[in-house]
Amino acid sequence: MTTGRSALRRLMRERRREVPPAARIGAAGGLAAQLLAHPLPPGAHVAGYWAADGEIPLHVWQLRLPGDVTYCLPVLHEDGRLRFAPWKAGEAVEANRYGIPEPVVAADALLQPERLDLVVVPLVGFDHRCHRLGMGGGWYDRSFAFRHHAPAPPVLVGAAFAFQQVVGELPSEDWDVQLDAVCTDLSTVSRAT
Ligand SMILES: Nc1nc2c(c(=O)[nH]1)N(C=O)[C@@H](CNc1ccc(C(=O)N[C@@H](CCC(=O)O)C(=O)O)cc1)CN2
Ligand SMILES: Nc1ncnc2c1ncn2[C@@H]1O[C@H](COP(=O)(O)OP(=O)(O)OP(=O)(O)O)[C@@H](O)[C@H]1O
User: Fold this and answer.
1) Angle CA 30–156–28, to nearest 5
2) Domain residues for 90?
3) Fewer CB in 10 Å around end: N or C, the chain?
C-alpha cells in the first residue's frame, strides 16, 4: 500500500501547512498541556523536534518543562539512525539536508536513541492504534526499531493537530514502530495494551 501512504502524506502535509498562525499558536498551548501530563523521572532526557513544514510547534512544551529536564533535538547521522543533541533556546543550529535546523555540537555530546526517557515524535498522520505515518525517510522507524522487542523507556509520544488522525486505520508496514500515545492540541490517544 505504498501509493496509499504517499497520497495521504501529500494531503496531510498540505492541510498541516494551511493552519493559520493564530490557530497554530493556540494549538501549541493545547499540545503542551497534553504532553506535560506524561510523568518524567528526575533528571529526564527528552527529545522534541524543530517544527517544520507546518508541524505543530513544541516551544510551549519546551518552555514549561521542569528545570532538571534536558531537552534534545534530533540530528541526522550517517548510519541512518538519529542521534539527539541537548539544546537550549539561543544555542547554535545549522540546517540539515532537509533544511531543518539541528544543533551544532561535538560528536561526544550526541546521545543514542536508547538514552532518552521520552521522545516526542513528529508525524504526518496517525490512527487510533497509534500507528504513525511520517515524512517517509524512515528515520524514527530505524532509530527506535529496538522498541519492537523492548518496553519503554524511551516512551514514544507522537505530536499532531487533532485533524491529523485518519478515519479507520493507516496502511502499515512491518518496520513501522507503534507509538505509546499520540498527543494533540485537544486530547491524548493511548495505544491499547
Ligand atoms: N521537524 C522534524 N524534524 C525531523 C523529522 C520530522 O519529521 N520533522 N524527521 C522525521 O523523520 C527526520 C527528518 N526526516 C525527513 C524526511 C523527509 C523530509 C522531506 O522534506 N522530504 C522532502 C523531499 C526529500 C528531499 O528533499 O531529499 C519531501 O518529502 O518533500 C524531511 C525530513 C528528523 N528530523
Ligand atoms: N527498521 C528499519 N530497518 C531498515 N530500514 C527501515 C527500517 N524502518 C524503515 N526503514 C526504511 O525506511 C523507509 C521509509 O519508511 P516509512 O515510509 O515508514 O517512513 P516514515 O516513518 O514515514 O518516515 P520518518 O520516520 O522519517 O518520518 C522504508 O522504505 C524502509 O525501507
Assistant:
1) 15
2) 3-190
3) C
